Automatic annotation (TrEMBL):
Gene Ontology biological process terms in this record: transmembrane transport
SUPFAM superfamilies for this protein: MetI-like
UniProt KW keywords: Cell membrane, Membrane, Transmembrane, Transmembrane helix, Transport
Principal subcellular localisation of the protein: membrane
Organism of origin: Promicromonospora soli
Membrane topology: Multi-pass membrane protein
A Pfam cross-reference name: BPD_transp_1
UniProt protein name: Sugar ABC transporter permease
Gene3D superfamilies referenced in this protein's UniProt entry, alphabetically: MetI-like (1.10.3720.10)
Matches recorded under CDD domains: TM_PBP2
Transmembrane segments: 12-34, 72-93, 105-124, 136-155, 184-205, 236-258
InterPro entries recorded: BP-dep_ABC_trans_perm, MetI-like, MetI-like_sf
Length: 272
């Protein structure tokens, strides 16, 4: 009994150490955002600075709002369309499996094997030929292609946990395919949809490579905007931390809204 308690205490202590280790950089970034620029990069660090909002004022003086709107448009739009496409695809691959389902699943995940850097030149030339550079709609379409394989794989594992007896009972009652999906299956896997949607939203919100190379001004998103605070004069850490703090707010809000569904969704499919 003593050994079991000691092991449990050790696991708890290690867990808290890992949590603090992951959370500390974020907390330090938020703390630095309220420092004046002269105290942001001092060595040793200043733990009792003159707190100020000048960093946030400088961020919005640089007109950050349009970049936030672009990020929100691309992230929300791509996430919603990814879920619209991923749910029926995963339904066909799990509840109503198609022929050679493993080949189909491998095809989906194989689209993530190639690094984005290896395909950026043909993508750039294609968008240039159709007038899609610096266009938020085309950037959203690219995000859909990037996140769709992940959503399909996640949703398939969630849908595989739906009791077949419920579906068979609905079919015996004369439920059509639409009723079977929207009235029977979707309410059960809603936590999984929330989990997949949040992960796709975070991936799209944080995406830097495509947004940096395929946009200039009109469709520029928040991650490339953050790099503008590092130039030849040096790193403006206080202003950069303030901008990064503002940038993480939508993700934190989305996670807070979906937290109950997220916990249940991440647990679905983990243990049979």
């Amino acid at each position: 009994m003593t050994t079991s308690r000691l092991r449990g205490s050790l696991v708890t202590a290690v867990t808290w150490v890992l949590v603090l280790a992951f959370f500390f950089p974020v907390a330090w970034m938020v703390f630095t955002a309220f420092k004046p620029e002269r105290q942001a990069a001092t060595m040793p660090p200043t733990f009792a600075p003159d707190l100020t909002l000048s960093g946030f004022q400088a961020v919005f003086d640089r007109d950050m709002l349009p970049y936030l709107i672009n990020s929100l448009s691309a992230s929300v739009g791509s996430t919603l369309l990814v879920l619209v496409l991923a749910v029926p695809a995963a339904y066909a691959l799990s509840i109503r499996p198609i022929v050679k389902v493993r080949d189909a699943l491998f095809f989906f995940i194989s689209t993530r094997f190639m690094p984005v850097a290896a395909s950026i030149i043909p993508v750039y030339l294609l968008l240039q030929s159709v007038g899609g550079l610096d266009n938020i709609t085309w950037l959203t379409i690219l995000y859909i292609g990037v996140n769709l394989p992940i959503a399909v794989w996640m949703m398939r594992s969630f849908l595989a946990e739906v009791p077949r007896e419920l579906i068979e009972a609905a079919q015996l009652d004369g439920a059509r395919l639409g009723t079977e999906i929207f009235r029977v299956v979707l309410p059960i896997v809603m936590p999984g949809i929330a989990a997949a949607g949040l992960i796709c939203f975070i991936f799209a919100w944080n995406e830097f490579f495509l947004a940096n190379l395929l946009t200039a001004q009109v469709a520029r998103t928040t991650p490339p905007f953050l790099t503008s605070f590092v130039d030849g004069r040096g790193q403006f850490l206080a202003v950069l931390s303030a901008a990064a703090t503002v940038a993480i707010v939508p993700v934190v809000i989305a996670g807070w809204i979906a937290q109950k569904q997220l916990v249940r969704g991440l647990a679905m499919g983990a243990i049979k």
